[in-house]
Amino acid sequence: MNRVHDSAPQGARGTARPAPTDPHVVVLSGANVVLPTGTVNGGRVIVEGTRIAGSAPVGAPTVNLRNHWVVPGFVDMHNHGGGGASFTSGTVEEILKGIHTHRLHGTTTLVASTVTGDMDGLAQRAGLLSELAEQGDLAGIHFEGPFISPCRKGAHSEELLRDPDPAEVRKLIDAARGRASMVTLATELPGGIDSVRLLAEHGVIAAIGHTDATYEQTVEAIDAGATVATHLFNAMPTLGHRSPGPIAALLEDERITVELINDGVHLHPASLQLAFHHAGGDRVAFITDAMDAAGFGDGRYMLGPLEVEVSEGVARLVEGGSIAGSTLTLDRAFKRAVTVDRLPIEDVVSAIAANPARSLGLYDRVGSLEPGKDADLVVLDADFELKGVMRRGEWVVDPQLG
């Protein structure tokens, strides 16, 4: 384990004759490497093929990353699209373009989120997305809607909302062919608690969101098996001193991972600090909640059946003005967390990689820089600007630093 960040050159301890260079091994050296145990200055990460390795042969090619940071590849568990493409309505080619757009910004593991639609259309979409998950392009599917509260619908079509009937929830997870990762529910609605139990039985995350639940109703849903808070603070009642609502219940319970959209629009900095203070660095997951405009630009877009205007990077419904997802990429969320919110970099790495990976059940493969895991990593400069992205041992963005 320690060899992953050992700063001494291989072979420096003895006089053994150099072994032939393995063309499938590369050593990233001299960087500040963020590991589960802390940050190692002047450390190194050894990549062998598609995996992180514990040692390297003498003479292995080296990339000098002095004055840079190496962190795990980002894991986004809530993302609706990017690069001009929607995961809810795009073609396969468009979806792949959206995935690639987010990879260029450091997201090496991505769950595709849908928005509210008719049940047959969502089931059909689940079939298409599951094929991309089977190919390894996606980490799974997140159904955000239609089982949400009309009182907290946000950018979802009210006409298509429905109560979370367990039979209909089952229809969607069956359509996903084992690739359903998460379903967001307003668990206070009729059928909500039974649907949570159904999801838990099938190994699918039940996420509490777009909800008008009371504190007590939220506690009941957590006890039934819910484990994620969908974009905490957004699309739910505010925290009150007599009626604390879902926020207090979600923050206080150690079983809950809380999603946060750290774009400076969805959350006041004090709300983000409140979440980290109460949930701790091991229960926060940064998400993008991105829509088509992420990595693409301002203009008019469709989010499901609803028209969205993106102006100066902020997405709002044309009718009503509700915030309609974000144009965030996780490299921007990372930089803001460190430079504006002044969070410890280790907590930021946990929130952007380890915690979502654990929540999704993927931490054995991604989410940290450890031998045996996928060689998914991000290179940042001293100002926390993205300079390199590696996914499964291949550079998506080559730092070209020598």
From TrEMBL:
Binds 1 divalent metal cation per subunit. InterPro entries: Amidohydro-rel (IPR006680), GlcNAc_6-P_deAcase (IPR003764), Metal-dep_hydrolase_composite (IPR011059), Metal_Hydrolase (IPR032466). GO terms for biological process: N-acetylglucosamine catabolic process. Keywords: Carbohydrate metabolism, Hydrolase, Metal-binding. Gene3D superfamilies: Metal-dependent hydrolases (3.20.20.140), Urease, subunit C, domain 1 (2.30.40.10). Its EC number is 3.5.1.25. Pfam families: Amidohydro_1 (PF01979). Substrate binds at residues 155, 234-235, 242, 266, 323-325. GO terms for molecular function: metal ion binding; N-acetylglucosamine-6-phosphate deacetylase activity. The keyword Metal-binding applies. Its cofactor is a divalent metal cation. It comes from the Bacteria. The active site is at residue 289. CDD domains: NagA. It catalyses: N-acetyl-D-glucosamine 6-phosphate + H2O = D-glucosamine 6-phosphate + acetate. Belongs to the metallo-dependent hydrolases superfamily. NagA family. NCBIfam families: nagA. This is N-acetylglucosamine-6-phosphate deacetylase. It comes from Streptomyces liliifuscus. The lineage of its organism: Bacteria, Bacillati, Actinomycetota, Actinomycetes, Kitasatosporales.
